[in-house]
Amino acid sequence: MGKIGALWGFLGVVGLIGFAVYRLTPRALESLESDLGVIHWTFLILWSVFMVVAEGYRGFQKKFSPRTAARVKYLHDHPRLLHVLLAPAFCMGYFHAKRKTQITAICLTLGIVLLVVLVGLLPPRWRGLVDFGVVLGLVYGIITFAIFTFAAFSGRKTDLQPEVP
Hints:
Elements: H1 2-33, H2 38-77, H3 81-85, H4 87-91, H5 99-119, H6 124-154
Helix pairs in contact: 1-2, 1-6, 2-6
């Protein structure tokens, strides 16, 4: 049951992030095909660098990916039926996690929903440019999550903390 839970948790998290990449990529690429001016290219470059650093490196690599990978490994080693059934939510820290982790997961989700609504109000070209940076950050996140998960299961990273109560 632990192997199934870990696989479901890993694939579920990657699937959620990957679905966002799948949905945003066409619009992001479409914006690159439009007639962009200097201000658009400047924004695109600065925004993309910001998103890779803020979302990819600081958000995923330094926080989300190590903790979530540790929770995938924890689920493998300590399977419970409810945790296995809801493995993606478990791995992302929505339940059976320290209070701070739960609050962070919920606040982050609410913040993302708010940002999606606000970005949806932008004109299509600008929305595509914003989406381009978001896609870069999310792809970075998927890669770091896979690397940390591999490290957790190969025994290379023993300092990963699942932050369970």
